[in-house]
Design a protein that fits this description.
By secondary structure, this protein is α/β, with parallel strands linked by helices. It contains 16 helices and twelve strands. 44% of the residues lie in helices and 12% in strands. The strands form four sheets. Strands 1-12-11-10-9-8 form a six-stranded parallel β-sheet, with helices on both faces.
Length: 410
């Protein structure tokens, strides 16, 4: 055995439990509900999904972590988190019997290192100092990132997982190596948010050159992984800024295709949270045109995160293969429901503050009622995310789900 005997027993026990969950009638029914949702055939109450994110730091210490080896402990926590979501939180998360191993990939900077300062709190605030000083003279310093894959280390991790519980779970490498094709977070790390917004007025040509570089660079980045046959299906896991990607309209573990996975087989994702203060017209001039060529590479697309989408709809609606739209806490749900109807997946993100800071049940119920009123008949999922603390009360997640089921009739 590659790990100590006790570590192996713990991991295999957890993998066996997860396999039972995946094979259960409840999970198979949930999986079908997600397929119906993403195929735009959903009926019944909205689905409920939680994403503990930063709050896992307060949940994991409650786990009886038993493994001694560092790698074994990481895998143990991974398995326990997935089991916890099913057994304790009891939301509508569905899962496939898959264990994902990350490839060892080294990604360079853009020719200029980012300059970030952080607070003493490892999870606290940070500030990105712009590393470009002049769009007219500095862009020549930028370079496309280079990617180096350590195949030997990657394969060793894959084989270790296969030896440990490959008879219980399918072992696969990660699906993708990026989160968003939105481009603006890179632009801000390089040029700064204030500079980005001012440049729309005082140096539009320079900003267009920066955004064109970032779009071309991102295209080179994502096609590298396609060309090197390093992609994997993502229609059986988390996609976009919250949600699960199960669908019949993309290849997946259940519906594979021959040959390497291509970008057209995947969900894509774009957003531009940082430009929430930019007018729709300027978003349409300086941001969206550089996202669209990247979106065209993917089989289905998800748009948006914490920024309201309705004001930018004239641009966002042009997204090729657009399937899911984020409905931010600050969106007008009446407007969104009218604009999007049943033509898209309505991914409602309630404001996490009443949940995280005081568990204000009155406000939580109000949110459920509002979403049911405007989007109860749509292809709707309610996604609790950006939950970076629960004040060490992890039971709040299960309570939120229970309240949701009561208010939504699910």
């Amino acid at each position: 055995m590659p790990f100590r005997e006790n570590d192996a027993l713990v991991l295999r026990g957890l993998a066996s439990h997860l396999r039972e969950i995946c094979d259960s009638e409840r999970n198979q029914a949930l999986k079908q509900r997600w397929i119906d949702l993403n195929d735009l055939k959903h009926s019944g109450p909205p689905l409920l999904l939680t994403s503990p994110e930063g709050a896992w730091r307060e949940i994991i210490p409650t786990f009886p972590v038993e493994c001694e080896d560092e790698q074994a402990r990481d895998w143990e926590c991974n398995l326990r988190q997935r089991i916890y979501q099913h057994d304790i939180i009891k939301d509508d998360a569905a899962c496939d019997p898959v264990f994902t191993v990350n490839r060892a990939v080294r990604i360079s900077d853009y020719g200029i290192p980012f300059n970030q300062s952080r607070s003493d709190d490892a999870h606290g605030a940070y500030h990105d100092e712009p590393v470009l000083t002049d769009l007219d003279n500095d862009l020549d310093r930028l370079r496309f990132r280079t990617m180096t894959v350590d195949h030997e280390t990657s394969q060793a991790s894959f084989e270790l997982a296969s030896q440990m519980f490959g008879d219980l779970l399918d072992i696969q490498f990660q699906s993708i190596y990026w989160w968003t094709c939105g481009l603006t977070w890179q632009a801000i790390k390089l040029w700064g948010l204030e500079n980005l917004m001012i440049s729309m007025y005082d140096n539009p040509d320079g900003l267009h050159r920066l955004m064109k570089f970032l779009s071309d660079e991102m295209l080179n980045f994502i096609t590298f992984f396609e060309r090197e046959a390093l992609l994997n299906f993502n229609a059986n896991g988390g996609v976009g800024s919250g949600g699960l990607g199960f669908t019949t309209q993309l290849p997946s573990r259940d519906r594979p295709v021959e040959g390497p996975v291509q970008l057209k087989h995947l969900w894509g994702f774009s957003e531009s949270q940082e430009t929430v203060g930019v007018s729709p017209e300027m978003f349409g001039e300086f941001i969206y045109p550089y996202q669209k060529p990247l979106q065209a590479k993917f089989g289905l697309n998800y748009y948006g995160c914490c920024e309201p989408s309705e004001g930018r709809w004239n641009n966002i609606r042009q997204t090729p293969n657009l399937r899911a739209i984020s409905i931010a806490p600050w969106s007008n749900q009446a407007t969104c429901a009218e604009l999007f109807g049943r033509d898209y997946v309505y991914c409602r993100k309630p404001n996490p503050s009443p949940f995280c800071m005081s568990f204000n049940e009155k406000e939580i119920r109000k949110e459920f009622k509002e979403t049911l009123t405007y989007a109860g008949e749509l292809n709707t999922v309610m996604i609790l995310k950006d939950t970076h603390t629960v004040e060490h009360e992890p039971e709040r997640f299960a309570k939120w789900v229970a309240i949701g089921r009561e208010e939504l009739g699910s």
